[in-house]
Amino acid sequence: MKKSAVVAALALIVFVAAAVLPVATVAVATPPSKYTKQEDVTSQLVKGVGSFSVTVYKLHEERTMSYESTSQCWSVPSQGGYEYWSELTAKDGAGAYGRYLSIVWGIPGSESRTWKLLSFTSTN
């Protein structure tokens, strides 16, 4: 088989595979425009905000869930503290992972009882 025929056959295989195989895409949520400071998702503060939001939600909804990670977190000063908008991953009791958006208000360094979960919604 000639080199040009091999190249053409390979190109056809790649084209067909790209057309037939499903492509997994993960939508990235965009924070509302009022959240102007991007937080470091590896910081203890952001991990704490994510863990707090999953814990409060699971207790309120009487569900088995555990916090896994935060993919993005943005903040804005609000009423003497900060509001945190986060996109996070949690695992349910069956071991399935889900993605969620949460909004938490709190004062960094304060006790957890002063923090508030304002919103927690699934993006799945």
Short description:
With 124 residues, this protein is α+β, with helices and mostly antiparallel strands. Helix content is 29%, strand content 36%.
How does the SSE layout of this entry go?
Layout: H1 3-20, E1 37-38, H2 44-61, E2 65-78, E3 81-92, E4 97-106, E5 116-122
Antiparallel strand pairs: 1-2, 2-3, 3-4, 4-5
3D structure, described in words:
With 124 residues, this protein is of the alpha+beta class. It has 2 helices and 5 strands, in the order αβαββββ. The chain has helices at residues 3-20, 44-61; strands spanning 37-38, 65-78, 81-92, 97-106, 116-122. The chain has a 5-stranded antiparallel beta sheet. A hairpin with a 4-residue loop joins strand 3 (81-92) and strand 4. The longest helix has 18 residues, at 3-20. The radius of gyration is 21 Å and the shape is globular.
What is the chain-wise order of helices and strands?
HEHEEEE
Order of strands in the sheet with the most strands?
1-2-3-4-5
Which runs of at least 5 residues are low in confidence (pLDDT < 50)?
4-25
Strand content: 35-45%
- N-to-C span: 49 Å
Major pleated sheet: 5 strands, antiparallel
Q: Helicity range of the residues?
A: 25-40%
* Overall pLDDT score: 84
Shape: globular
Count, helices: 2
Structural class: alpha+beta
As a whole number of angstroms, the C-alpha radius of gyration is 21 Å
Number of strands: 5
